[in-house]
Amino acid sequence: MRVLVIGIDGATFRLMRPLMQNGYMPFLCEVEQRGALGTLETIYPPVTAPAWSSFMTGKNPGKHGVYEFLHRKRGTLEQIPVNAGMLGSQTLWEMMSHAGKRMVVVSVPLCYPPFPVNGTLMSDFLAPKGARDLSYPPELLKEVEDQFGEYLLYHKQVYTKDNVGNVLAELEEHTEYRQRVAEYLLKRDAWDFAMVYFEGTDRLQHELWHVIDPTSPMHDQAEAAQYAERTRNYYRVLDNDVRKLVELAQAQDPDTQVILMSDHGFGAIHKFVNFNIWLLREGFLKLKKDIPTQLKHALFNLGFTPSLGYKLSMNFGFANLRLSQGMTNRNQILDLVRRGFLSFRNVDWSRTRAFSSGNYGQIFVNLQGREPYGSVPPNEFPNVVEQIGARLLELRDPQTGAAVVSKVYKQSEVFWGEFIDDAPDVVFALAENYKALGTLEFASNRVIEPAFGNSGDHRMDGFVGMLGNEIKENFKIENANIMDVAPTILYLMGLPIPADLDGHVLTAPLRDEFVMSQQMMQGDALGARDQMIPDYTEEESEEVKERLRALGYLG
After folding, report:
1. pLDDT of 386 higher than 80
2. In 10 A of CB 241, how many CB atoms?
């Protein structure tokens, strides 16, 4: 039995359900009627890199080791971009290759650098700019580019009032290109498993959520009148592209089972929360007492902050610097920003008990023996975690009085496994419409401020759809997690399911006759393997980090 997976980054019913009801996504409506559809809960944090890693391993980040787009080297504050080598567990691609199954994998995140598979694989946008090792086999890249031109991976357009058309044009171009490549590769060779990845939905929703969401604080009626229909039409085109891929696969083999999925959901951003400022004000983080730091702090309190500079750049039309590519003077500018503004360089680590680093405000205790300048003895660690969690639940929006943090988790509820030492110590969820701001260590002098730049961001509730002759009709999928998809694929393909996967087979959407006839085979535990630190030059590492910052992934 063949399986085709189509990954649609950040796709969410918050947008898709109204689009389905208004005729923009007729194929997804067919999937709901002819197959199964429902919500797919993602892992924490709901970030592209760890989420797709949990999909392709069937494990939580504590077992595969990818927690963010950036990985902090143990015992240091240095961060490096993640890539495929950082995965501390086998992936679906490896399990199927070992079983002799042939595959086609198109640009799924964490597929760079490319690795040998039993089939073909194209890398993803985490590749450094200028990299030419973008495919397996290596000669496949030239073949694809000879057919379709330069392999498109990097988005450059960001939202400003006068740039919506360019954002949409780039999204349309990239999606059309990805569709053409996918159709070519699906026809090129016989395959047992295939996966095609579209990232345009994620980029659109980050940059243009407010265009089609009238409740967004950034919504502008004139802008919506001009661009909302074109924005919605992007989903119509993508829906039809997905239909064509499914019809192509099932025409080749009617026994092809299809899974549509996103890595996380999406929603509006109304306000940013700056957790290092909160930790500073709560006394968990301390600044040095030297004159340069005190001067920076005084100017910081007066409003001389990186966020002010960014807002001014937007007002004066320089926002596109956010997506400068390559090793330009932007790196030097950011270094000057860190020297000119408050940064971790100004933190007194000997008196600091905790700090925040990550897209979701993840908090780490400054633990002795683990952190480079650890100050908290191990016996005090539980108490610090408990204190921070309790105070987070007390954090209120000064304008509304509403709670900003909706839930604080025990670390063990969210992460477990061989790489637990890299996990954040304090794990929490923000209330709806709030987003942690991780641009720089101290991006703003306010704990809570109105959002700017991106108008949409990730949520925990993604989606999943299933279609095929072994899938029930008009079935609502419930209680599904992104870690469940890998074991479900293995089960559909008649392969053993490793004993240490965290996900479970989604049998409920499958026809009873199939479940009764298909034995569920348990395989040996895969265990962990050493993470391979990316062999980037300093320039390559900085280029990838700058692109991630530009895209809004600024942990």
Report:
1. yes
2. 21
